Amino acid sequence: MTAEAEGSASCGEECSEALERLETYLDGELPHEDIDDIREHLTACYPCTDRVSFEEQLRAIVRRECTDEAPPRLLLRIEEALSEGLPGSD
Length: 90
Ligand SMILES: [Zn+2]
Fold this sequence. Notes:
Elements: H1 13-26, H2 32-44, H3 46-65, H4 72-85
Helix pairs in contact: 1-2, 1-3, 2-3
The protein binds zinc ion.
């Protein structure tokens, strides 16, 4: 990762990288350095912040519904529904 989007608030490569690590982050399995990276990004990036709170809520729900393990199919369905209903084409 070499490009630094200084002064630019637009979502780009950093976002995809942050989102890629998001799951690991939410699982609590991300190394501290990466956590700092993501947190830093999140403070500057609203779309990603939204996404994170979204996923956190999702996980909380799934955890409550299925005490063992979240069926991937359920997660997939929810994510699909969410991405379809996601706001923000501008
Ligand atoms: Zn972002």
